[in-house]
């Protein structure tokens, strides 16, 4: 496949195995952002034509996002990060004391913190299901966690801790059969697994711009199904929320689409950048990206398995979970953070995971190469000696 590595300068600098934290910025994205900022500086952020241009940019980008994820433009809200989208839905749903949400024991604080706050503030009961090592067992435990009070299943599509891809279609079917909605944390999946929001059946899908989508920091997307808009009230609102509001009338007419959850303008240069990065990925093709990541991750799994003293914490794919772009391991006799430091000295960038999970996490995106995986495995084998 055409990897376009020449347009990703950061991947030439070092071995870039940490897209799960933040992806490399493509040069066309940098140039588009620079141009937008230059125009702002030289022409000023004023005048009716500038306003029209910004609104045009938002409308165009909403369409680009919708086409990329198989959604309707009215199902797209701009956010500043993945966590924002999760909060919009969790605080927007109307809860009664004792309502239940099912999640997993491997969620990121971006989902976990709002869930715990919801428990404290609204008396919502959170039920935690262990993903274990294979999808079938997980689905059995998930099914057992439903009760007549379950209103939502909130979980990651890809677990940030161990990289398993949760069986989303089966989760959605199960939740809908029990009359519950599904909120997905797409931080480690969007940009690596193709998503067709329309056919996925998912009700709400929150996405960061800065990771696998290779967009700027401070960007995010919330996809929300049209027929769920009325169920998710506004926690914060602002001028983009209203279709009509008048000071002499207490009622307000909200925008028809998901734009109602936006409280103001995002940084236009960041929106330009996000649009450019989506176009960059689309030009390569999300299907080709997904296939290449799968090939590379399976190869990485095989190589790491052979490293003496290395234990893979990501369960084997055969008969288990579908892979993603993440692999996690531990090296005998080494603290995780020390492995990260030692690899960094060799120009290899990975990350360690906090307690209680632990482990060293490797992110593999389409731009990584077989040779890089071999270097990583070789460097780890040398550490063990
Ligand atoms: C699974 C998961 N959820 C949420 C987040 C938070 O993303 P953001 O910083 O875009 O809110 C991360 C980021 O590390 C993540 O890995």
Written overview of the protein:
- The chain is an alpha/beta fold and 385 residues long.
- It folds into 2 domains: 33-282, Aspartate Aminotransferase, domain 2 (3-Layer(aba) Sandwich), CATH 3.40.640.10; 286-384, Aspartate Aminotransferase, domain 1 (Alpha-Beta Complex).
- The chain is 41% helix and 16% strand.
- It is built from 12 helices and 15 strands.
- The chain has helices spanning 9-13, 27-43, 48-69, 82-92, 109-122, 135-145, 168-177, 197-200, 268-284, 286-305, 336-345, 370-384; strands at residues 15-16, 76-79, 100-104, 125-129, 150-156, 181-185, 204-208, 220-224, 242-245, 252-254, 310-312, 326-331, 348-349, 351-352, 360-363.
- The strands form 4 sheets. Strands 2-8-7-6-5-3-4 form a 7-stranded mixed β-sheet, with helices on both faces. Strands 11-12-15-14 form a 4-stranded antiparallel β-sheet. Strands 1-13 form a two-stranded parallel sheet.
- 44% of the residues are buried.
- The mean pLDDT is 96.
- The protein binds pyridoxal-5'-phosphate.
């Amino acid at each position: 496949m055409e990897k376009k590595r020449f347009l990703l300068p950061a991947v030439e600098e070092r071995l870039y195995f940490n897209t799960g934290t933040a992806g490399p910025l493509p040069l066309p994205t940098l140039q588009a952002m620079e141009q937008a900022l230059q125009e702002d500086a030289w022409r000023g952020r004023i005048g009716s034509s500038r306003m029209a241009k910004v609104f045009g940019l938002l409308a165009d980008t909403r369409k680009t996002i919708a086409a990329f994820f198989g959604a309707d433009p009215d199902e797209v809200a701009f956010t500043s990060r993945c966590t924002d989208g999760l909060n919009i839905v969790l605080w927007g749903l109307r809860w009664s004391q004792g309502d239940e949400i099912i999640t997993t024991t491997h969620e990121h604080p971006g989902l976990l913190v709002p869930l715990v706050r919801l428990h404290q503030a609204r008396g919502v009961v959170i039920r935690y299901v262990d993903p274990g090592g294979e999808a079938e067992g997980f689905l059995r435990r998930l099914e057992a966690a439903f009760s007549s009070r379950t209103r939502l299943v909130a979980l990651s599509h890809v677990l940030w801790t161990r990289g398993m891809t949760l069986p989303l279609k089966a989760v959605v079917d199960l939740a809908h059969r029990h009359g519950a909605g599904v909120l997905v944390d797409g931080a480690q999946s969007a940009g690596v697994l193709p998503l067709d929001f329309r056919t996925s059946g998912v009700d709400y899908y929150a996405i960061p711009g800065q990771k696998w989508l290779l967009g700027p920091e401070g960007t995010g997307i919330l996809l929300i199904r049209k027929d769920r808009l009325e169920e998710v009230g506004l926690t914060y609102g602002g001028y983009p929320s209203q279709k009509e509001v008048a000071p002499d009338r207490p009622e307000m007419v909200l925008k028809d689409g998901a734009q109602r959850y936006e409280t103001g303008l995002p940084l236009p240069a960041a929106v330009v950048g996000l649009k450019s990065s989506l176009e960059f990925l689309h030009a390569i093709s999300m299907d080709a990206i997904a296939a290449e990541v799968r090939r590379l991750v399976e190869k990485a799994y095989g190589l790491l398995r052979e490293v003496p003293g290395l234990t893979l914490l990501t369960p084997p794919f055969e008969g288990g979970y579908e892979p993603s772009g993440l692999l996690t391991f531990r090296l005998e006799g080494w603290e995780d953070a020390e492995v990260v430091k030692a690899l960094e000295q060799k120009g290899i960038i990975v990350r360690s995971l906090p307690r209680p999970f632990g482990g060293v996490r490797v992110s593999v995106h389409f731009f990584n190469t077989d040779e890089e995986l071999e270097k990583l495995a070789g460097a780890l084998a040398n550490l063990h000696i």
